[in-house]
Amino acid sequence: MARAQSQYLRIYDTAGVTYQRWQSYYANTTVSWDSSSWAYVPFVADGFTAGIGGNEASVNVTAPATSVVIDAFEQAIRNGRLVALSIYQFDTLQGNDSPQAGQSLVGSFTGQVVGGSSKLTSITLQLGSALSPIGAQIPPRKFTTAIMGKGCVL
Amino acid sequence: MSWVLATDPLALVAIQAGQVNTPSIQTGADGGGRLDTQQRAVALGEPVPIVFARRRNDKGGILISPGATEARFENDTSNAVTAYYHLVLSEGQIDSIPVKDVFQRSCRVGSYSQTYNRRAGTWTPGNAIAQQVGYDFPECPYYCGTVGAYPGMSTLSFSVTIPNGFDQWNRQVHCFIRGGMHVTRLVDSVVGPSDNFADLVNWMLSNSGRVPAALVDATALSTAAGFLEANGFTCNCWLTEAQNYSDLLAKWAPYFLLGESNNGGKKGLRPLLPINSNGTIKTTAITPEYTFTEDTILPGSLEIQYSTLAERQPFVAQVTWRQQLEDDFGIIRTAEVRYAGTAESGPYESHDLSAFCTSEDHAVKVGAYILAKRVYPTHTVRFSARPQTHNTTVSPGDIVRVRLLRQATAAGQTYHDHLYQVERISKTLAGDVSYECSHFPIDSQGRSLVALDVAAATGTGILLTSNKTGVGCDIHSSTDNTIPGETWSAADWDVLDAGSMQELAYNYLVGSPSGSTINTDDGLDNQTIPQSFSIVPTGSAAIDGAGLKPTVGTCPGGTAASVKWFYSSSPNGSFAEFNNFGSQVYVVGSAQISATPGTTIRAIWYCGTAPQETYQAVIGSGTLETAGSYYTGKYYKDGVLWGSWTSYGEPAWIVLWVDPVFPANQRNRVYTRRSDGTTGYIDDFGTSVIVTLNTEYLRSSTGAIIVNYL
Fold it and tell me: Nearest to residue B171, comparing CAs of B71, B259, B62, B60?
């Protein structure tokens, strides 16, 4: 047996509409998995972290700064789109040119594109939650003129 | 609680695992309140409060003191003042409040009307106090507000009439809430009031406006809700102050024996204790999800961090909670928990749960948990493991076993063999998985020691009665469950529109800049040998290595390049364009060179209509001589002096060169070809003249400009 891992990335909105499906293992080819087509984009997602602390670091995805990637990133961060990352592991001796039906899910991560950085030739997307660790959010509403008018002074 | 970032999370795992709780600041209980105060007015910008409560099993509910947004004051002929207050009770819809639960100061007085999603009451805000003959003028507030809309809020209109001589019309109104904001309960999927902290968290995540549903771990929240319901950990609170969601969760979740979870990016809650399928605390043997041994743990990756002595000193956990009476205000109480025979004279560590906890057992179990997590767990670990089954089966919160052999020379062998609760999992591209775990101590039967102590901890069961004494001031009965009819008013939109939403057009169209990318060159960066600049028109060939038309660079965007020539009688005069290349190759002939000093010839390289570089030759002074006549002048490029020039020959033509020192063995010869085809150099500058490289010249029947510069 020879263990290998492949990564899949899907960009979609809160209504479930999918905009991008990428995979980074099967080079220069579009593969079928989970009833969908996944285009090859040589991205790298750093280690998924899950925990019961609630404040685990976000996942970063680094990809070449092609027009497809940059456009997808800008649209995602502008519209608060979601990104679903999945890691599958499989035995390469049973096949290495397309996703295997029996490959097992090792880890997954769902987040929004909350930030990023870029050099001229590469771009790194930061995935996480838009819930800011600073700033007041609860209760969510404030009293405004549109709600209570002028208000009394007692 | 403030956020702290650390580079070594192993040191923080103990805190995240709940081993060290932040004790409360030494102040009065959060759940307490003052009764006989002046009615408070709401200020614009204040948060809309949230009442989250549900009274059941003789526990729960909360007394609130809502702020007023509108008021009205009027008096009758006996100078009795009637005060009207419009109060905002809560965000969302709450249960109707019976008469017995509405107070002004500590008395059941007045009348009221409650509604939702609109302004309660039919009165108009204002001060209608009139001077009554024979009475003092009551000083009532003059700024009474305007009628608001209050969308999505529960409101209450309260009025009370106070006889002349008393000023109690301005006292605070209180309401005892038995059923707070309606939410969808995770336990039974019913929409109604709730006292389940997981329901509150679910509501906050949905309504904070920042977390989409896909990032909410509904499964984890449901499990947490079941745990809270099964163990009686309830939440009855009134949120009035703006705070950060994460801060609130970090502060309150441990007091429900819950931890925040982040599973694959999805936020949720997770019980800090092992639980059974029905949500109760598991007090039977624990079966680890996976056992890590030398076979899976990467050599050298194990790190152990032991708890400090300060963190493990015995102490008394003093937990403040709120006993909420059925027909009176809540009584703030404390529960003290310690291990038998320890800390009999302290130290004391206070934890204030009075803002939300109305159960003694809840308070005592929290105290027991805080104590047990300090006493029993001794360390945290971090290790990396090669990928195996645990890749897909172990999740944060699971219990795992780590069993490693310690083989010491001449000292036998022992095992590091403990159970751990997984706090954090990091999976890398290389396949290895990093675990951070906290010690999960068990007894000889494999049962969690912390869980055993928490499950066994119970309160005294003693409920105190109200210490209310003196002559009662209630007008209404303490058993009056009447719900008054709803009355409401339309909003004053003339005022509300002043704060209406201003909607901006959302312009997605983003353009890119256009235009030339060429900037003016200051000439200070040119350290290379410049190209020779000659002025042979395109298509004409010079001889002996002469250059082409000015190779002044490529114009961006495919813009056409051109060279234009200008002539002026002085460098500062007006320039006239000329271009008489025609079929001849000369640019400036003797007929066009004047002996007048200051005559200026300018060549400008254009990209389209934008000038790029300017070459300028200014004639200085000289004597026109036959067979060797010459003129001298200065040569400029973009306004910067580049060198001098001298013209030779008959007719006169110009050679330009610069003056920096150059190797002495370089020679410069200038040639000319006459109309009869003969050639020859007219001068050999030898070594006494600073020479230039790339001497180029033009075939010309009359003359030409040759520019050479270094």
Answer: B71
User: Does any CB of chain A come closer than 8 Å to the CB of residue B693?
Assistant: no
Name beta bridge partners: B291. Answer: B401
Tokens of B134: 């024979």
Helices (H), B355-501: 360-375, 390-393, 449-456, 493-496
For A140, the closest of B46, B141, B207 (CB atoms) is: B207
The residue written with tokens 């009855």 in the block is B236
From chain B, the residues in CB contact with A14 under 8 A are 212-214
Range ranked top by mean pLDDT from A6-15, B460-469, B495-504, B646-655: A6-15
CA dihedral over B643, B644, B648, B651, signed as positive or negative: positive
* pLDDT tens-digit map of B413-446: 888 999 999 988 887 767 788 999 999 999 999 9
DSSP A65-86: --HHHHHHHHHHHHHT-EEEEE
Residues 6+ apart with CB under 8 A from B550: B533, B534, B535, B563, B603, B605, B615
Beta-sheet strand order (sheet of B316-323): B331-337, B316-323, B348-352
Q: Which pair of tokens denotes residue A139?
A: 């209760």
ipTM: 0.86
Q: Which residue has the tokens 């969601």?
A: B245
Residues A4-19 have pLDDT tens digits of 889 999 999 989 999 9
The minimum CA-CA distance between A125 and chain B, rounded to whole Å, is 15
B509 vs A50: CA distance, rounded Å: 38
Query: Given an 8 Å threshold on Cβ–Cβ distance, is B71 in contact with A14?
Result: no
Nearest alpha carbon to residue B153 among B14, B51, B266: B51
* Per-residue pLDDT band at B646 (split at 50, 70, 90): low
Q: Report which of B683, B674, B627 is spatially closest to residue B655, judged by C-alpha positions.
A: B683
CA dihedral sign, ordered B368, B369, B370, B375: positive
Nearest to B387 among A89, A132, A141 (CB): A89
> Cβ contacts (< 8 Å) between B68 and chain A: which residues?
152, 154
Give me the count of residues in chain B: 710
**Structure pTM?**
0.74
Question: Among B215, B217, B399, B489, which would you mutate to test the A interface (most chain A Cβ atoms within 10 Å of its Cβ)?
Answer: B215
